[in-house]
TrEMBL record:
Segments forming domain Restriction endonuclease type II-like: 237-294
Transmembrane segments: none
Cited Pfam families: MTES_1575
Biological source species: uncultured Blastococcus sp
Source organism superkingdom: Bacteria
Name of the protein this chain belongs to: Restriction endonuclease type II-like domain-containing protein
């Protein structure tokens, strides 16, 4: 078994490659004795690697001779959680691999941009996001975790792992697909500065703008007296009003509250009025929050 582990350091290999490195007799003996498993036609794996997500992904791409794609690629990109079977791969439309357990094959006429992570081929992050969005909007209810594609798009743009322009380009290359209009609307919001679902909620339901007030600026950069730059969730720069939308995950701890207070004090020293709204209040009283923002901005503009 030690020899096999040395021959398959990644836990998986094509039967042809392993045969070339050893012999047909050896490979047949190993598979007959259970020391190697046939996981897909032409692909063998060590029993110890069966539950390894990377080994399973590698096996799927070896069998398909195509990259990991859709939500399976997002898992490897690190922007989506591990999802149980099946794994998704994509091949060109002129190929039709025969079926195998635990792998869904997608065929495409759109040229593939392929990257590699740990030696595993996968579709580019932009392509993976658009493909997953399409799949999520075509899939029967429950086939994909709710909101997976949406969260992955927002997080990938927020962390600057992908540009909105790249997602628009991939979307345009696909033409009309399931949920394409909804993806376009989401890209408009994240391009405008929304970095979370809470900020999207704020733009749609809370932040007042034209014609009653100037349009708020999202992710507005301010240099504090210390020289450090910060970004505001939303701001009305002419009125020096900052609006902070506090998500429960990042503003609920004592340390986070202390950090927010220090930040607010530094902004106040520069003449900014900070309006901070909790997640609970934003959800329960969006109209009340909106009226409060409008009142303060109007009052500040009147004295400028």
């Amino acid at each position: 078994m030690r020899d096999l582990a040395e021959l398959l350091p990644l836990g998986v290999a094509s039967r042809v490659d392993l045969t070339l490195a050893t012999s047909t007799t050896s490979v047949t003996r190993w598979t007959s004795s259970g020391q190697l498993l046939h996981v897909h036609p032409g692909v063998v794996m060590l029993p110890s690697a069966v539950d390894d997500p990377h080994a399973r992904a590698r096996a799927a791409t070896l069998w398909a001779r195509g990259p990991l794609s859709h939500c399976s690629a997002l898992m490897l990109w690190g922007v989506a959680p591990l999802i149980d079977d099946p794994l998704h791969v994509t091949v060109s439309a002129d190929r039709s691999p025969r079926r195998t357990t635990g792998v869904v094959v997608h065929r495409t006429t759109v040229p593939l941009s392929i990257a590699h992570i740990d030696g595993i081929p996968l579709t580019s992050l932009a392509r993976s996001l658009v493909d997953t969005w399409d799949l999520a909007h075509r899939a029967r209810k429950g086939r994909l975790p709710g909101g997976l594609a949406r969260r992955a798009v927002i997080e990938s743009v927020r962390t600057r792992r992908v540009r909105v322009a790249s997602l628009r380009s991939e979307s345009a290359a696909r033409g009309i697909f399931a949920g394409s209009a909804a993806l376009g609307r989401l890209l408009d919001l994240v391009a405008g500065g929304c970095e979370s679902e809470l900020e999207i909620w704020g733009v749609k339901r809370v932040l007042p703008g034209p014609p009653t007030l100037p349009r708020p600026v999202q992710q507005h950069a301010v240099r504090l007296g210390s020289g450090r730059w910060i970004r505001l969730d939303a701001a009305y720069p002419d009125a020096l009003v900052a609006v902070e939308l506090d998500g429960a995950a990042f503003h609920g701890s004592r340390e986070a509250r202390e950090r927010d207070l220090r930040r607010d004090s530094a902004l106040a020293a520069l003449g900014w009025a900070v309006l901070r709204f909790s997640y609970a209040r934003l959800m329960a009283e969006p109209e009340g929050c909106r009226r409060e923002i409008e009142t303060v901005v109007r009052a500040r503009l009147a004295t400028c």
